[in-house]
Amino acid sequence: AKKEETPIIEPDKYMKHPLQCKWALWFFKNDRAKKWEDNLRLVTKFDTVEDFWALYNHIQLSSKLQSGCDYNLFKDGIQPMWEDDANKKGGKWMLQLNKQQRASELDKIWLETLLVLIGEGFGEDSEFVNGGVVQVRNKGDKTAIWTSDWKNKSSIVKIGEVYKQRLGLPKKMSIGFQAHEDTINKTGSTVKSIYHV
Amino acid sequence: EQEEDQADVNDKKVYDRTFLMQFRFHNTSMEKPRDLPTIEDIIMDRPLPKSSVSNAMPS
Questions:
Q1: pLDDT digits (tens, 9 = 90+) for B6-24
Q2: Which strands make up the sheet holding A69-75, listed edge to edge?
Q3: Span A32-49, mean pLDDT?
Q4: Which end of chain A has less Cβ packing within 10 Å, N or C?
Q5: Confidence band, pLDDT 50/70/90 cuts, at residue A189
Q6: Among partner residues A15, A49, A167, which is closest to B15 by beta-carbon distance?
């Protein structure tokens, strides 16, 4: 006869620290032979502090990725693209790095971006935060916080202030917020920023 | 207890940097998640060596 199994208590299940939201990490690799959607892959979802670190500890640092690759961390249910309903009327606070900062700053900045997101660092305005993006590019890497509803000025500005402060950016340095619709409809190479902090 | 200090009045799970960072090298944080897809560019079998990562804030 089969030995009766005693239920095994997995202490970790009880000890892990739940996050407010469930998050999905996506990886994008620019492969011109494939369609854009096929270049975007869901890596995994997590909703505890420990599961976040287990993932973080087993994926490559941003600074080691090829140019053209992105990591996207978004709330579960929101696709990391403009077309998603949550992003459609939204925009992003973007930080443009220079080439030298890949070696010295990129990994730290992306980690701070991840921590402020999963830790609900934007307080009451967290509900307008959809996710974060790091883009590795030869001409200069970028990180961003994506929000919904760009017209909600007070929340958007507060989100930008928190992001800037959490990254430890100097006061005199300014970052800009761009609406996705302006990025989509841009005619030149630059997109105007609606807000600055 | 520190955990309780982290929760705000609305019971929202708000965790600051220091709180999150203390779990970085916890045993459970060093185990490879079981459900990861095969993506050669990013997925690693062994955790990032502690020496390769810094605890410092961006400067």
A1: 554 468 999 999 999 999 9
A2: A40-48, A18-29, A69-75, A129-135, A142-147, A91-96, A176-179, A195-196
A3: 92
A4: N
A5: confident
A6: A49
Chain A, chain B: beta-carbon pairs less than 8 Å apart:
121
Residue type at A158 in one-letter notation: K
Q: How would you label B6-45 residue by residue, b for 16+ Cβ within 10 Å and e otherwise?
A: beeeeeebbbebebbeebbebebbbbeeeebeeeeebbee
Minimum CA–CA partner of A25 in chain B? B36
Quote the minimal CA–CA distance from A25 to chain B in Å. Answer: 11
Q: Which of A9-13, A177-181, B9-13, B32-36 has the lowest mean pLDDT?
A: A9-13
State the nearest Cα–Cα gap between A1 and chain B, in angstroms.
31
Q: Long-range contacts made by residues A28-36, C-beta under 8 angstroms, separation at least 24?
A: A28/A69, A28/A70, A28/A71, A28/A72, A28/A80, A29/A66, A29/A68, A29/A69, A29/B41, A30/A68, A30/A69
